[in-house]
Amino acid sequence: MPDHTISDRALHILQTIFGYPSFRGQQADIVQHVAQGGDALVLMPTGGGKSLCYQIPALLRDGVGVVVSPLIALMQDQVDALAEVGVRAAFLNSTQSFDEAMQTERRVRRGEIDLVYVAPERLMTSRCLELLESSKIALFAIDEAHCVSQWGHDFRPEYMKLSVLHERFPDVPRIALTATADPQTRAEIAHNLQLDDAPQFVSSFDRPNIRYQIVEKMNARKQVLDFIRDEHPGDAGIVYCLSRKKVEETAEFLNANGIPALPYHAGMDMQVRSANQARFLREEALVMVATIAFGMGIDKPDVRFVAHLDLPKSIEGYYQETGRAGRDGAPADAWMAYGLQDVVQQRRMIDESEAGDTYKRIQTAKLDAMLGLCETLNCRRVRLLDYFGQPSGPCGNCDICISPPVSFDGTVKMQKLLSSIYRVEQRFGAGHVIDVLRGVESDKVKQWRHDKLSTFGVGSDASEAEWRAIVRQAIALGLIEVDHDSYGALKLTDQARPVLRGEQKVQLREYQKPARQKRQAVKPKGYVESELSRTEQAIFEKLRWWRVETARKHNVPAYVIFHDATMREIAKAKPGSLNDLRNISGVGEKKLETYGEEIVAVIAGMS
Ligand code: ADP
Ligand code: ZN
Question: Which residue owns the Cα nearest ligand 1 atom 25?
Fold first, then answer.
């Protein structure tokens, strides 16, 4: 039986405190279930709105909501954001002084706090457990719950101990949340946190506002510069690179070319690193060039693009990293440059790792799935969602849907490639094989007398780039593999045989020379862009300035004050009074009280 008083009260909190008109997706059900004391496992994509799923029940129930999170660096911002809407929040972690911790503990004990964020290793101390035993607890929220999974990509041993919560506090509801969707991780979370009997709330993993685009890598730095200049001037974004050195070089290159950029990788001094992160969060138009060490839990809502200069190891990684774009729901881009060299490099990394065979096999399977995504002839989103077990139809908002590749019967071309690889005894890399195909009389070709082979020059009708594209597709189709031991030599797999014998046809993608493309005017499905008139744009700009100033005064990131989407609505509605302002999504009572007068004054000053 749904408890109407609870759902009414939840909606009231959503509207008056958080300033949003309605719940999204399954939020209402989750809030109701947890507020009534139920356990839950919540799977929602990044930006889906997980926080409210535990924040509102914590406010509805007596006592303090305890949020377990590994993201110590973000706790301050989370607490600040809650303070902005008038929720009493605090944190306990190793960055604060003993006195500060004492004070928080005292407030928790006295019931003066609605939400307290705690690092898992802190929670497990006897001091902290005693504190919680002597306080009234509304719920436990276990954020980033995939950290308890050994299968996943971010296992943290201290998460395993969280099953104590169930034993020590059997009557307190627990809600575990994650954006990692695959069934194996989900099962491990349920099992390791003893949530086997808890209902699972699984949301759609689609992020319709993100446009996926994968281009052929030529000169990646130049390509990403063009991409930012053409499509995202003045926007905040993240550029991922594999190595620390490449991070440094790319950041320097972007800066030298007028794009303000900061580096971030694990080899940097801790202080510089966190200073860069803080700047990225607080300033409006910075590009963060980073290794994957950057980004877990980054909840900056207005990241407009995520670019990959190197191939991620898996679709899980790719989806998580690209998911950091467009959390505010406005259009955003996931852009990647990928080439043959990436495949060779990733294969080598797997092979050279110290890990056991099972692990290597899993990693290889994951990389293969990633390659399949890169070389697909069909909608990228369909492929991505399918990987997470969610069926869907062509999206209209990926490069393949926008300009579908033309496919052709590439059986003969593929046979030429495969037999060339065979003729050079499967001992040479792509560069040499392609030289032989195209009849290039390089020193190496002459040295090995490969100009005498029957396949020499049989592929002279196609360019080197075209042949590279065919090699990549052959790898993605599983016809050939790259041998990591012998300098990236191409080898035939068993699957090559029927193709060579002419028993099996191969569809290939017609080669298109990569061209610098201006953004096409295609809007993501279901997204209604609030086009601003000239006056409204001016108001919006004015509000942005006001927000920069205010954020500096309060020492919080700008988006903690108001999101762009909220400010855009304000610019359109031009509220003349506090009451008008109250109706805008993202304006709750506390913000109305704190900023209402100033906003109304900004608007009045413009007319
Ligand atoms: P997650 O933790 O799932 O990545 P968040 O909880 O940070 O996502 O929410 C993402 C963004 O969506 C936040 O800016 C949040 O304020 C906004 N949001 C969440 N729920 C709603 C809602 N019901 N209506 C409007 N905005 C919402
Ligand atoms: Zn598509």
Answer: 20
